[in-house]
Amino acid sequence: MESEDDDSSNSCDVKTIENFVMPFVNFLEAHNDTRVNTHKKGAENLHKKISLFDKDITEMYSGNNLFVLSNEYHYKTESYYRIVLRENQNGYKITPSSDQILDAYVIPICLTKAQMAGIPVSEWGISDTYCPVPSMIYGINYYSDSSRYEVAYDLETAKEAIKKVTHSGKYPFCFQRLPPNAEIKTFTTLFGKNTTTDPEICALLKKIYEVFEVPVAKIILIYDGEKYYLSSISPIKRSELSNDEKEEFQTRVETGIENGEIRNFC
Amino acid sequence: MGKLGIFVDRQTLSSSVQLISLIKFRDEAENMGHQAYFIFPTEIKKISGLDGLFIRSRTDSMNISYVAARIAELNGVPVIDDPTSIRICSDKVNMYLHLMKKDVPMPKTIFIKKGEVTLENLEEIFKMFNPPMILKEPSTSFSARVERVYTKEEFIKVSRRFIKLSDWVVVQEYIDSKFDWRIGVLDGELLYACKYIIPNETFKIQASVNGHLVYCDVVSVPKEEVPQDIIDLGIRAGNAIGNGLYGVDIKENNGSLYVIEVNDNPSLDGGEDISYPDIYEKIIGCIMNRGKNTQNINLSTK
């Protein structure tokens, strides 16, 4: 093992970040907690290009909070591990935290937490064989992705959908009952904001952000013609963003950089 | 006295050894005056009505056992394994970072990232480690996706396979030993100790050799025969994760001790309890007392 002395020499913010472009993640980086007073200088020196999505991970400081911005926080991805690494360093409250990500991305936990916070969700349950129809169906397993769902319209499509999400019956699944004539709508959000002007949706997206604190997310809602229900929170693909959304997200990041809040690793 | 849930799934019940262990656990809970229920994945909404929950299915942050643990926690139901312990221990990167943070002695370890497996980087890594070295896919359990590599070619082959499953992979110094100490820790105290005798055919406690599964032998060791430094290190490693139930694997080599892993949801059905007949009673007591303590806090704050 390397000595603690090596770690103490690594007290400058800029050096810390340079360690990230080393060929491997040096475990001593985990001990470094001396960035509190130096991050603004680091941001100025290290910013290379403004890009929030795909392979880039942006870190934004705001007071005692460190926001790790990425379009993809899925378990065991680079962004997830950046968060886990930061959680094991001292000094900042990390948003989103690794537990917040799992709360958001693992569907039954997401629905339970939303219900407890007063966010409307459709009738849901966990099963391994049967679901009421029509329903949305999500997998609960190592390979599941909260952006992927199947819709079971009738018993025939339910059979196929269940087979698909359960890996032929190996794992359980989560169903959400669809009200008659329901529509499934998708919104992308940055800090709980979206370009939509509908006040009901704006209030719901804001509430979802307050509860789950995932700064960049795709939110899938069920609409029954009168009311919106949360169905899932998931990563966003760059191709899923409208030009307006890209522009607004970019503006928010640029403002963060001007304020000295943002560091960008490209 | 209260309602204790034992969360199980089909895989747990498919093994007769595990089934016997579960029935023993249920009987012990009933002997202590509790009502014990097996809770299956489709019954997860019943968790909110329990006074305690014991998870006995394979844990991973993405599977149903984590859902059960987290739903228990959200409803204020004491649970072992708690979701934080599952999240940390079922991901070796997170687990090792917690051990490093608390300066727990462990083999030299680095994490290699997706895109970093290049010949140039391997030169540097092979200088850092004397081969062989161990590669681990972070969500390994029961020694699956743990491989020993001697050459750069093997390193590339194995790491590329693991990187398909995880953006970071663990690279670790190989520590040779004939056995692993397994120290069971509950709520910061020794629960049991045993030795896992590594089969001659492999370096792991469980492996597939020529198409046949080989398992380690389990030798339960009474507390008075366990060196105090082993007990202390096991407890220290457990405390680096939390206050739940852990199985800490320790290797001894050339007079030095190394924590190899801290496992949540440790196996209790392989003979680990032979010298410790009160394991189940202690686990049940710990879960149900946490419930009482929570109730007392709630009452005193009302």
Which keywords apply here?
heterodimer; A: 266 residues; alpha+beta; 4-stranded mixed sheet; 4-stranded antiparallel sheet; 22% strand; B: 302 residues; Rossmann fold; Dna Ligase, domain 1; D-amino Acid Aminotransferase, Chain A, domain 1; 5-stranded antiparallel sheet; 4-stranded parallel sheet; 15 strands; 35% helix; disordered C terminus
Question: CATH-wise, what's the superfamily of the largest domain in chain B?
Answer: ATP-grasp fold, B domain
Strand content of chain A: 15-25%
| H/E element sequence of chain A | HHHEEHEHHEEEHEEHEEHE
- The average pLDDT of chain A is 78
Shape of chain A: globular
Beta-strand proportion of chain B: 25-35%
- Helix percent band of chain A: 25-40%
Instruction: List segments of chain A where confidence is low: pLDDT < 50 over at least 5 consecutive residues.
Output: 1-23, 26-51
User: What oligomeric state do the depicted chains represent?
Assistant: heterodimer
> Which pair of chains forms the biggest interface, and how many residues does each contribute?
A-B, 39 and 47 residues
Mean of pLDDT of chain B:
91
**Rg of chain A from C-alpha positions?**
21 Å
- Assign an overall shape of chain B: globular
Number of helices of chain A: 9
Rg value of chain B: 20 Å
Low-confidence stretches of chain B: 297-302
Kindly describe this structure:
The complex is a heterodimer of chains A (266) and B (302). In chain A, 34% of the residues lie in helices and 22% in strands. Chain A is of the alpha+beta class and 266 residues long. In chain A, the strands form three sheets. In chain A, strands 3-2-1-11 form a four-stranded mixed beta sheet. In chain A, a hairpin with a 2-residue loop joins strand 1 and strand 2. In chain A, helix 5 (98-105) packs across helix 6. The two termini of chain A are 29 Å apart. Chain B is of the alpha+beta class. Chain B is built from nine helices and 15 strands. Chain B has a five-stranded antiparallel beta sheet with strand order 13-10-9-14-15. In chain B, strands 2-1-3-4 form a four-stranded parallel beta sheet, with helices on both faces. Chain B starts with a strand and ends with a helix. Classes of the chains: A alpha+beta (266), B alpha+beta (302). The interface between A and B is large, with 39 and 47 residues.
